[in-house]
Amino acid sequence: MNIRGLSLIGSKVGAPGGAKFQAFDPAAGKSLDPVFQSASAAELEQAVRLADAAAPAWAKLSGAERNRFLRLVADKLDQHAAELAARAVAETGLALARCTGEIARTSGQLRLYGEAAVRGDWLDARIETALPDRKPLPKPDHRSLLRPIGPVVVFGSSNFPFAYSVAGGDTASAFAAGCPVIVKAHPAHPGAGELVGQLIAEAVRECGLPEGSFSLLFDAGFGAGQALVQHPMVKAVGFTGSLAGGRKLADLAAARPEPIPVYAEMGSINPVFILPGALAERSAAMVDGLHASATLGMGQFCTNPGLIVLQRSPAAEEFVRALAAKLTATPEAAMLTPGIRKNYATGTAARTQQPGVKVIAEAKSTAACGAAPVWFEASAATFLGTPGLSAEIFGPSSLVVWCRDGAEMLEVARHLEGSLTATLQAGAVEAAAQGGLVDVLAAKAGRLVLNGYPTGVEVSHAMVHGGPYPAASDGGRSTSVGTRALNRWVRLVCYQNFPDTLLPAELQNTNPLGLLRLVNGDFTRTGV
Amino acid sequence: MNIRGLSLIGSKVGAPGGAKFQAFDPAAGKSLDPVFQSASAAELEQAVRLADAAAPAWAKLSGAERNRFLRLVADKLDQHAAELAARAVAETGLALARCTGEIARTSGQLRLYGEAAVRGDWLDARIETALPDRKPLPKPDHRSLLRPIGPVVVFGSSNFPFAYSVAGGDTASAFAAGCPVIVKAHPAHPGAGELVGQLIAEAVRECGLPEGSFSLLFDAGFGAGQALVQHPMVKAVGFTGSLAGGRKLADLAAARPEPIPVYAEMGSINPVFILPGALAERSAAMVDGLHASATLGMGQFCTNPGLIVLQRSPAAEEFVRALAAKLTATPEAAMLTPGIRKNYATGTAARTQQPGVKVIAEAKSTAACGAAPVWFEASAATFLGTPGLSAEIFGPSSLVVWCRDGAEMLEVARHLEGSLTATLQAGAVEAAAQGGLVDVLAAKAGRLVLNGYPTGVEVSHAMVHGGPYPAASDGGRSTSVGTRALNRWVRLVCYQNFPDTLLPAELQNTNPLGLLRLVNGDFTRTGV
Question: Between B51 and which of A59, A281, B7, B180 could a Cys-Cys bridge form, CB atoms 3.0 to 4.6 Å apart?
Answer without folding.
Answer: B180
